[in-house]
Amino acid sequence: MKVTVIGGGSWGSALARILGDNGNDVIIYEQSLEIVNEINLYHTNKSKLPVGTLPLNVSATTCLSEALIESNVIVIAVPTKVIRGVLNDMNNVLTHKSLFVNASKGLEPDTFLRVSEIVYQEINNEFIDDFVALTGPSHAEEVINQLLTTICAVSTNKKAAKLVQSLFNNSKYFRVYTSYDLVGAELCGALKNIYAIASGMLSGIGLGDNAKAGLISRALVEMRRFIISFGANEETIYGLTGLGDLVVTTTSLHSRNFQAGYRLATGKNLEETISSMTMVVEGARTVVAAYQYARVNNLETPIIDAVYDVLYNKKPVKTAINQLMKRSLKDE
Known about the structure:
alpha/beta, 51% helix, globular
C-alpha cells in the first residue's frame, strides 16, 4: 500500500518507520529541503529525531502533489496550529479518495473543533474515504527504536479502524487496538498535553511523585467533565487514549509538554520556553481552547485554569499551586 505521511517531524518519522517495517511504500511530505535530503540520502532525521533510522522503502519530498499522487492512505502528523493551511494546500492538489489518519493532538481555540472536524471542513468530501485517529501512549523516541508500544486506531467506522489497525500493527514492537469513541479519544489526546505542562511545573519547583500522582488523579476528573460535556463515552478516559496517554506524557522526560512546564517553573517565560524547544508544545495552544470552553460551558477545571494563568497571565507557578491547595475542602 502507498502511504503518505504529511510532516517530517519526530512523530511523522516514527510512524513512517512502522509503516516501512510493515512493507508499505511510504513517502514523507516535508517543507524543509535539508530534512528531505537527509531522509533520502542517509535514512535519518537527526534534527527532529536524533535516534533511530528509517527503512529503505521510506522516502521524502518537498512536492505535495508528488507525495499525494496514487496514495491510498494519508497520515497527518503536523502541529495543529498549521493544520488548516496544510489541509487547504492538500485539497488543491488531491485527485482521488484516500483514508485520512490523524496523528496530531489538539483542540482549536475559539471554535473548539477537533482535528477530525477540521479535516472535514478543509477537505472536499469527494477526497475523504474515511477518518481514523491514531492515538495513545507513544513517544517517537521509543517507537523509532522499536521499543514496545500500544496504541489505538479510533474511528466511527469500524471497517476503517480495522484497516488502520492492520496497517500499523507490528507484532514485534507496535500493538494497535481499535476503538470507536472518536470524540472522547481526540479530546483526551488534546487535554493530556495540558496536564503534562502542569506535571513539568511540579518537577520544576522540586515537588515529587506524590504531587504527580495527585495531579494525574485530579486530571482524570477534569477530563471526565470535559468529554461528557462533548457527549463522549466516559469509559474512554480509562483506556489507552485516556489514562494511558495521560500517564506517559505526565511522567516522561521525552514529553515536550513536560519539558515546557519544567522550563516555565525554573524561570523562563512562555516565549523563551517555546523558542528554546525544537518541537511544538501543543498543550500551550490547547489550554487556550480548553480554558475558553470551560468558561462558556461552566465547567470546573482548576488545573486547566492554573496552567492558563501561568502561561498567559504570568502567574508564578508556586502561587498557582498555593491557590490550588487553598481551595475549599470537598469530597473526592
